[in-house]
Sequence to fold (165 residues):
Amino acid sequence: MVINLEPVFNNEGLFVPIDYTMDLASLSHSGTNPLSAPVRIFGSIKNTAGVVNLDALISFEYFAACDRCMKSTSKKYELPITYTITRTPVNDENKDDEYIFTEDMKLQLEDVISENIILNLPNKFLCDEDCKGLCPMCGHDLNTSQCNCKEPIDPRLLGLLQFLE
Ligand SMILES: [Zn+2]
Ligand SMILES: [Zn+2]
Fold:
């Protein structure tokens, strides 16, 4: 999805609402394609006294396996973004994240969206904050029930235990 910003740059006060739904299912992250549901961007681009701003909310659903129990699960996220769009490069390194530079007055929405999603993905993805995970010995899902495994006993302690009995 490419937006031509020429009318916005050329008309002070122009306000362009944006509401697009796009398919980013081919985006891959950590060996999976977590965006199997369409991603929506909703907001506006406006020219305020010659400065062009993009303000929007990215809504997406992230599909992946739980890092603890491996069950496939999904979560919905909403990500607000704000950018100033410029036609000349901005020489302020600290401000990199808040500017989009476009020489030809075209805005590649997919790039803006996928970059923001990747930067904000959770580094631990859990089906539930309290997920108990899998038993490290038998692989049983401890969320469904407890298994019969016992903590392994250090062989050096066995003699002592027998002594105590
Ligand atoms: Zn889990
Ligand atoms: Zn077990």
Summary: Residues 132-165 form one domain.
